[in-house]
Amino acid sequence: MKKAIGYVRVSTDKQVEEGISIDAQINKISAWASLNDYELIHIYKDEGISGVSLEKREGMQKALDEIKKGMVLVCYSLSRVSRDVVDTLRISEIIEKKGADLVSLSEKIDTTGASGKMIFNMLAVFNQFERDQVAERTQLAMQYKKSQDQVYSPTPYGYVRQGSKLIIHPEEASNICRIKKMYEEGQGYTAISRILNAEKIRTKTGKLWKASTVHFLLQRSNITPERLLEEVE
What we know:
2 domains; Hect, E3 ligase catalytic domain fold; Rossmann fold; 7 strands; alpha/beta
């Protein structure tokens, strides 16, 4: 009897509401295996994990380790496999080198044939395009809200929420001005983070500062000493 391995993934609660929950995906895969006379050996899961990075998905890595020649990896849709075109093609290459195939139920892709392989590669590119568009729209929306001092999530360091507006938090804003001054005086990201941690100044989430956190803050914050002075007055 032919053998198959299933793979399911959800990254948000919204996906559960839209009908592509873990259970819904499992039911679809199980029904396909039964209908096509495949023995479904195991279904690997990645719950609450983004499809952007393969390295962070233990379920997918186990599925790829388990799959053997002549077997099939079955998923509900290509977007469950990956949201990144490079990782999607990498997964496809791993499966192909093992002499196995991939079946995606939503797109009706079956790589046992040449046309299935072609469609798979095309849809991988479209998936990447869709993800890039969403990221671009989100970034533009956040930039607009930031320029209008409107609330967006998460609340940036230096501000507090007040209704639909972001109001400057004097203490945090003062810290930002100090961080900018230290940077202008030649202090590096790591040195600045060490100073902040030594003084027990915490980030917005209460965590320790890192070089990357300082870098991000300096790149994104629009708070200046002049603006802080205006707010205080």
